[in-house]
Amino acid sequence: MYGSRIGRCLFVLCAELGNCESNFLIDKKEFNMRLYKLELYKICCRKSFIIGAVCTMGILLLFFLIKVADECTYVDGIRYEGFQAVQVNRQIIKEYQGVLTDEKVKSIVEKYGFPGKVDENTGYRDGNYLNEFVEFYLSDGYCYNWDDYKLATRVYPIADTDLGEAARLTGKDIVLGYTNGWSAFSDVLQVALLIGGILVLIGISPVFANERQTKMLQLLFTSKDGLKKNICAKIAAALTVGFCVWFGIVVIDLLLCGMVYGFGGLKCLAGIIRIGGLNTYVPITMLSIGSYITVMLLRTLLGFMLLCAVTLCISAYFKSTFSSIVTSMICFGMPVLMFILFNIFYNLLSHIIVSLMYALPVYSSPIYSILYPMDDCRSLRGVYVFMTISAAEFFLFLAIAYRIERRLIRNGVI
Predict the structure, then answer these.
(1) Cα 58 from Cα 245, distance rounded (Å)
(2) CA distance to 309, 326, 333, per residue, from 330 (Å)
(3) Which of 373, 45, 321 is nearest to 193 (CA)?
(4) How far is CA 116 from CA 132, 146, 149, in A?
(5) Are strands 123-124 and 175-176 parallel, antiparallel or unpaired?
(6) Count of CB atoms within 10 A of residue 279's CB?
(7) Domain residue ranges of the chain, discontinuous segments joined by +
(8) Are 131 and 114 in contact, with CB atoms under 8 Å apart?
(9) What b-and-e string marks burial along 322-332, b requiring 16 or more CB atoms within 10 Å of the CB?
(10) Which of 67, 75, 92, 97 has the fewest Cβ atoms nearer than 10 Å?
């Protein structure tokens, strides 16, 4: 009898303890989430950040409209420009898209001929997407400039061209598709991410420095777990802002290009949209555009996250927002200065020493990862190496930012 009562009491006690523990954990999670939302709000609601976000989207849209306005094509004796040119090119390629064959190439030449008029500003004045593709990759003609060109007179078999060599090396058929949209996507993305990087830099620089400047640290870190949790909440909020800016730019750029140019051409060779063109000695140009774009986006995302980590580290060190922003700007643009110095000292010092001093810090830097994610790398292996270095730097700078902020607070440096 007494044993059953004791058992019931123990059961009730354990249940109450369990409820208390679960309530404690819930309260703890709510506290952490509340800190995170507060820090996120403080970053996103600054006037400078809001104005910068609007300007970034405006520049993205403006640059995209410029890209569309530059499009031109010539079909059946009529010259089309801008949005209409894009739609005409998309229409004429439907008949030939898919696996490229010699029969299709012959049909394109019979129907549209070779481009024959060169304009000083736009290249071929009487060319369209199809006959310019044939002229560039499958004929004896070329057009490097308005005063450096040769009109095509004959067509080579696909097997005797770089396209045929690429097919042999990759073991895949050459696919013809409309790729101007992906070229526009990468060009617009380059500019938009550069402006977005500056926006992130301005938004994140005050995260730690502003609390020290406004003398708010005494209040923010008075709770029992305030020191650790506030720092982690600030870091999490800063990384979230960086990711959201990157994601927003990519999605808007992708939607704009998809609505105007379409999403076709992902199976075509990446060399078609890459600066420098197709090169069978550079394996990265023989990737599909889908794979190329995917790796490019991953590296730009890593560049954004590294930019956030470096900016947080600088913000944790300085006591004023202005000093933090200026120093972050200098660090962000430092690889440009290193590029200039590299060209100056390359012929004066050992090529190997200068190359190592230049390659490691520049190729893995945020600005290079954002502006030139796939340039100067012959294969994916080179891209992956610099992505690994950037990832290691990301975690290193985050750890440094955390330790600097924690040490300054503990030592009473406010």
Answers:
(1) 14
(2) 15, 6, 5
(3) 373
(4) 10, 12, 10
(5) unpaired
(6) 15
(7) 36-65+180-410, 73-145+152-171
(8) yes
(9) ebbbebbbebb
(10) 97
| Residue recorded with tokens 């290691």 | 392
- Each residue's pLDDT tens digit, 217-268: 555 555 555 556 778 888 899 999 999 999 999 999 999 999 999 998 899 9
Residue 164: half-sphere exposure toward Cβ, Cα within 13 Å? 9
Tens digit of pLDDT for each residue in 348-394? Answer: 555 555 555 566 667 778 888 888 888 767 788 888 888 888 899 89
Q: Half-sphere exposure of 402 toward its Cβ, with a 13 Å CA cutoff?
A: 14
CA nearest 107: which of 116, 95, 125?
Answer: 95
CB count within 10 Å of CB 85 equals 22
> E strands within 98-255?
98-99, 118-119, 123-124, 142-145, 148-150, 175-176
Of 291, 269, 264, which is closest to residue 279 (Cα–Cα)? Answer: 269
Whether 260 contacts 254, CB under 8 Å: no
**Residues belonging to the chain:** 414
Tokens of residue 367, six digits:
């600005």
One-letter amino acid at 114 equals F
Task: Identify which of 300, 301, 298, 278 has the alpha carbon closest to the alpha carbon of residue 288.
Answer: 278
Residues 6+ apart with CB under 8 A from 199: 49, 52, 53, 55, 56, 245
- Find the angle CA(86)-CA(92)-CA(94) to the nearest 5 degrees: 105
> What pLDDT digit, counting tens, does each position of 156-200 carry?
898 888 898 999 998 888 999 999 999 999 999 999 999 999 999
CA distances from 105 to 139, 143, 151, 403 (A): 10, 19, 17, 63
